Amino acid sequence: MSNKVSHNEEGNMSLVGHLREVRNRIALVFVALIVVFFACFACIKPLANKLLEMGKNCGFQYVYLAPSELLTSYFKLSMILAAVIVAPLLLYEIWGFVAPALTRREKRAIRPALIGGLFFFFLGAAFSYFIALPFMIQFLINYSASEFIQSAISVASYLDFMVGMLLTFGLVFELPMLAFVLSSLGVLTPQLLRKIRPYAIVLIFVLAAIITPPDVVSQFMIAVPMIGLYELSIGISMVVVKHRKQHEDEEDDEDEEDDE
Predict the structure, then answer these.
(1) How far apart, in Å, are the Cα atoms of 230 and each of 21, 134, 173, 179?
(2) pTM for the full model?
């Protein structure tokens, strides 16, 4: 009876300890998010002006349609920027909590993906800002040009479009890291990726049509990089699967030597 009680107490303490750890990690991330948000909000105007400058150079004239629209846009932009900045800390805290429960293979799959995921996210955002967005904006303003219509646009609508495209490209560029993780865990193979390639391309264009503005150029600007990333994912999957098989063969050889 006493043994059962002691085991229950240890289990309860373990559960309480895990809950306390989760609370502390969440609190740390939340405090960091608040602090970074206020820091971003204090200097958000130069960043917003940098985004607005791209449209202005193409001929946009900006207006705001409600007294609080500009302030609300700055607030939203600051919150998104703070979330992006704090994301590495969030990933670190999640990793610190779940890592002890993961197997060696799962750790080998996820640890590089955390760093690579951040790299590919910012690579996608940079591709969007320096290549895709200038082309999109120039095309849209030229396509909409008319002697009867002036190109005045709401500040909130423009910033929502810009931030939406930056985040979209950042997430789209995570595809190679997703392939890396799934291939490392044995869920995905390059043979499967090649087999479903035609269906994946169709799905890519459907997704591009859903997540972009209703114009063909924006859809192609999303779809073409996604197809390239899909091909890159096949290559990554090939390398990972080959390395995983070599590692498994080495482990089997070591087990055979131990048996002898």
Answers:
(1) 38, 24, 10, 9
(2) 0.81
